[in-house]
Structure to design on (991 residues):
């Protein structure tokens, strides 16, 4: 009983570690070459020297741009209390200029215990922001604007970016604008008037290397040797983990994993699944857990979809494939039915169904998104007449047919 | 969205859980409707928890998926990365997730993107449930918060979640002294979004889909678990900017063995039913393996199967099974092709409406017993004429109209045409091909009314009127009894989706219409018209044209409608008699 309890505690601990990005990225922060150190240097410089600055953090999704930034901001807030205030915007939520300024005003009000008016206009809010910037500058307080999904702010007229960066041109203000984007060309999206006001400082975030992945793995999975777990259990857990990590089969698994996608997020998803597979009665991680996890991560959605299809649906798919082989460039349900009748006439299959049944199967295929309409126009046309296309290639169709258990063997 | 304002939680059922496992619903708390008990955190919990065993036995063939989900959800208070549950429709995704939460007894918020059909309703319904707000008369059925923008939603959501979480912690501390199991288990709250695949159609820029998938990163609250349920696989959610994919969990379609287990549940006479399934399941599985469709097809068939039996409680012997099979056999093939009889209806509605439609048709099917040569529903006489004129206008080029409906020299014209078209069969075939590809054509209102005029004037049978109205357009023929208000009828037909309103013609600027009626339906309709026309001794080209259309149609439907064919030859005889 005691062991199971320990195991459950260990499971919860590891799961909460995986879900906590700031825990994951702490080991990367110590070296002076890391993005953490560079970013911290830049921001703390502008805080202490009271100057304006702007930076772009670029890199693929799931590489910890925001997580590292949050680490830096947390440390800065601890080092310089009352000198930094952070405004966070997200391109998904605030790409509309009006909405963004309102949100800035709201967050400034919350930060400084002011009354926020929902009714304030765009102009009011922008005035308010500029005067707040001036006030904060006089009080030697730096406002840090974090713009997540920066590329979405660059859509439209870029009024927000312009007014932010323009306000930073004056000596009285003291602000840092940090853009975060997964588009490497994010700075090219800016208008000329905005670009000229933007300092072209960029930090690139890359997926971790193999050694770093290894270190990260052990950092996440090993249990702390302190009072929270019984000493024996933690020692045994870590020893078993060490053995697994050293195993060449495990290295293989990690290699296939990072072969498809080597970002930290992908690794975390894999680890989460592996940890979920842990047997609580046994209480330790095994190599099997990692094997099942990699199997469930590597999916072939189209094949899975084909396996679910009924025989009639497969017939329709094959008919469409034959039509495509005949280089008929546009076809719809009626021509598929003609082909289906042709197959029936030449092979005398037992599966010949009425038109309405086929139409229903055809609609199932549409629902499964194995086929789709070629255009979105002609909504008023009924299903039979709208041209369709296959969404799977023959390379996927043939293995799919083979793996389907109910598929007739004549093909 | 729950219009009565009662909390949606106690009433939660899904299609499959209500149809397959009616026994399960009995365990639900009896309270609903009129007296509104004050909302408590208990509303976020399903009801009385069930054991793991009954959970597994309620869903045959889903053991792997249930155990996997339970492992992913983990022990109480363990954080969760977003989950993405997907699989074809009617595979038990929603009901299993809800029953798992009933088993775990943890608080959750369920919102389906099908009932919450736009972002605002989705946001508000989620917030209403979190804030324990009920829409009722007192508050004018309004939501707790008005929020349309994603930005507002995230702010409100964060507030509401914080409130709920502190409440949960408070309850946990209080109840720890008494019974720990009384409240919801643990400090986590789960947001479940069902039918996520529909969100993609809400907006072209895929902002909301993106938002939902990124919600976990935006909220940054480890106590909140997100679960998405979708009927399409994760690779169908394309996004130009890329999304962090949630953890996928697949629900594959049921296999034949599992289907057998499912249908055997709650049967009064399992032996009899299993012998029925032995016969029927295999051929039907070749068409579809969806439980909802199969169950509607099986219930009338089973009645038929049981017809020769006087006592339904008997255990069938081998001999009896054979006898019953012989009785059923002729019906199998017919019902295989009639399995989706409702699909032969002309209204091919958008996917979203289909379920409602299916249900309606099932009801109609249960009533049953309608004559095959009748249409399954009643519309007014002039609407029927309007329908057939729309069909004619859609399927024929406008150039043919004059030769068909001109009462002076129509017949000669037509003969001449016959000869000329007889020469080139190839041309005809290509035209046929084009019709198959392009579908029914569109036509302006005037043409429809003109054809309608021609048909109805014949129906009235008075020659003077015929002369007067010939060639005259418009709906001013108010003296004809049938045309009470043609335009009104037309708009009714448009609303019923028999005739669709297309875009306006760029040159003429008037709206164009298109008949969406299928051929089978048109056939039934024209038979009706023919019969009513035959009642009146008038001879017109329209008659022969209608019969011509019928013959063409019948040659296409040879296989399906032999009954119709019989009826029709009969009526042709009649027709000849009338003509003589």
């Amino acid at each position: 009983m005691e062991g199971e309890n320990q195991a459950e505690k260990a499971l919860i601990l590891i799961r909460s570690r995986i879900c906590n990005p700031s825990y994951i990225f702490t080991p990367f922060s110590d070296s002076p070459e890391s993005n953490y150190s560079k970013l911290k240097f830049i921001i703390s410089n502008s805080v202490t020297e009271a100057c304006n600055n702007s930076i772009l953090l670029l890199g693929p999704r799931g590489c910890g741009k925001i997580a590292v930034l949050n680490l830096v901001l947390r440390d800065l807030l601890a080092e310089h209390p009352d000198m930094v205030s952070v405004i966070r915007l997200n391109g998904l939520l605030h790409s509309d200029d009006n909405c963004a300024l309102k949100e800035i005003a709201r967050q400034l009000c919350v930060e400084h215990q002011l009354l926020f008016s929902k009714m304030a206009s765009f102009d009011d809010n922008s005035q308010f922001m500029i005067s707040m910037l001036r006030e904060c500058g006089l009080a030697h307080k730096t406002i840090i604007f974090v713009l997540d999904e920066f590329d979405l702010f660059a859509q439209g007229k870029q009024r927000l970016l312009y007014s932010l960066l323009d306000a930073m041109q004056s000596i009285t203000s003291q602000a840092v604008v940090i853009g975060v984007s997964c588009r490497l060309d994010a700075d090219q999206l800016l208008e000329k008037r905005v670009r000229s006001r933007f300092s072209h400082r960029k930090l690139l975030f890359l997926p971790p290397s193999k050694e770093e992945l290894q270190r990260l793995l052990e950092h996440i999975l090993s249990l702390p040797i302190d009072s929270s777990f019984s000493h024996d259990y933690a020692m045994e857990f870590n020893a078993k983990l060490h053995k697994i990590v050293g195993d060449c089969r495990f290295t293989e698994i990690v290699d296939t994993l990072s072969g498809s996608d080597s970002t930290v997020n992908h690794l975390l998803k894999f680890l989460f699944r592996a940890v979920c597979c842990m047997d609580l009665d046994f209480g330790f991680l095994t190599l099997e857990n990692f094997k099942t996890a990699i199997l469930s991560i590597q999916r072939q959605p189209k094949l899975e979809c084909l396996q679910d299809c009924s025989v009639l649906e497969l017939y329709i798919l094959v008919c469409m494939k034959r039509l495509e082989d005949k280089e008929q460039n546009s076809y719809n349900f009626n021509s598929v039915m003609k082909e289906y009748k042709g197959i029936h006439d030449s092979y005398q299959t037992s599966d010949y169904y009425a038109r309405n049944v086929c139409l229903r199967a055809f609609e199932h295929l549409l629902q499964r998104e194995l086929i789709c309409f070629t255009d979105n126009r002609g909504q008023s046309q009924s299903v039979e007449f709208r041209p369709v296309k296959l969404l799977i290639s023959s390379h996927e169709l043939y293995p799919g047919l083979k793996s389907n258990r109910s598929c007739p063997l004549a093909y | 969205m729950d219009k009565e304002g009662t909390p949606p939680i106690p009433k939660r059922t899904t299609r499959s859980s209500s149809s397959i496992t009616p026994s399960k619903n009995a365990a639900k708390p009896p309270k609903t409707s009129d007296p509104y008990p004050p909302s408590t955190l208990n509303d976020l919990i399903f009801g009385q928890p069930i054991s793991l065993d009954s959970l597994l036995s309620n869903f045959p063939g889903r053991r792997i998926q249930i155990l996997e989900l339970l492992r992913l959800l983990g022990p109480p208070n363990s954080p969760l990365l977003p989950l993405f549950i997907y699989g074809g429709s009617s595979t038990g995704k929603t009901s299993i997730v809800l029953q798992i939460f009933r088993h775990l007894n943890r608080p959750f918020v369920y919102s389906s993107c099908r009932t919450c059909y736009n972002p605002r309703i989705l946001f508000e319904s989620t917030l209403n449930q979190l804030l324990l707000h009920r829409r009722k008369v007192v508050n004018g059925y309004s939501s707790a918060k008005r929020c349309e923008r994603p930005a507002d939603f995230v702010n409100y959501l964060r507030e509401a979640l914080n409130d709920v979480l502190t409440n949960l912690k408070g309850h946990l501390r209080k109840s720890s002294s008494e019974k720990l199991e009384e409240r919801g288990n643990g400090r986590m709250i789960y947001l479940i979004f069902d039918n996520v695949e529909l969100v993609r159609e809400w907006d072209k820029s895929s902002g909301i889909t993106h938002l939902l998938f990124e919600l976990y990163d935006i909220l940054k609250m480890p106590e909140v678990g997100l679960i998405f349920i979708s009927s399409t696989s994760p690779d169908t959610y394309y996004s130009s900017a890329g999304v962090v994919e949630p953890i996928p969990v697949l629900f594959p379609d049921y296999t034949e063995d599992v289907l057998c287990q499912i249908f055997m549940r709650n049967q009064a006479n399992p032996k009899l039913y299993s012998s029925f399934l032995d016969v029927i399941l295999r051929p039907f599985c070749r068409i579809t393996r969806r439980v909802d469709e199969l169950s509607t097809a099986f219930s009338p068939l089973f009645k038929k199967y049981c017809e020769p039996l006087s006592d339904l409680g008997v255990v069938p012997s081998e001999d009896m099974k054979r006898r019953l099979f012989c009785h059923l056999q002729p019906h199998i093939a017919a019902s295989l092709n009639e399995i989706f009889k409702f699909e032969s209806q002309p209204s091919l509605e958008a996917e979203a409406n289909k379920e409602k439609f299916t249900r309606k048709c099932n009801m109609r099917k249960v009533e049953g017993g309608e004559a095959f040569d009748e249409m399954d529903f009643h519309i007014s006489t002039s609407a029927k004429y309007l329908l057939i004129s729309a069909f004619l206008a859609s399927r024929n080029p406008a150039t043919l109209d004059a030769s068909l409906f001109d009462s002076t020299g129509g017949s000669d014209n037509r003969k001449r045409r016959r000869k000329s078209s007889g020469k080139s069969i190839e041309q005809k075939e290509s035209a046929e091909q084009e019709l198959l590809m392009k579908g029914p054509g569109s036509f302006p209102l005037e043409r429809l009314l003109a054809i309608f005029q021609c048909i109805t004037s014949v129906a009235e049978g008075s020659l003077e009127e015929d002369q007067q109205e010939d060639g005259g357009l418009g709906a001013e023929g108010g003296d004809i009894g049938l045309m009470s208000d043609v335009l009104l009828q037309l708009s009714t037909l448009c609303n019923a989706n028999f005739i669709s309103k297309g875009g306006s013609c760029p040159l003429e600027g008037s709206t164009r219409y298109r008949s969406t009626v299928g051929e089978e339906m048109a056939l039934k309709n024209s038979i009706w018209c023919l019969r009513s026309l035959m009642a009146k001794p008038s001879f017109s080209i329209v008659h022969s044209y209608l019969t011509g259309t019928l013959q063409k149609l019948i040659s296409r439907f040879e296989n399906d409608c032999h009954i119709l064919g019989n009826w029709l030859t009969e009526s042709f005889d009649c027709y000849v008699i009338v003509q003589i």
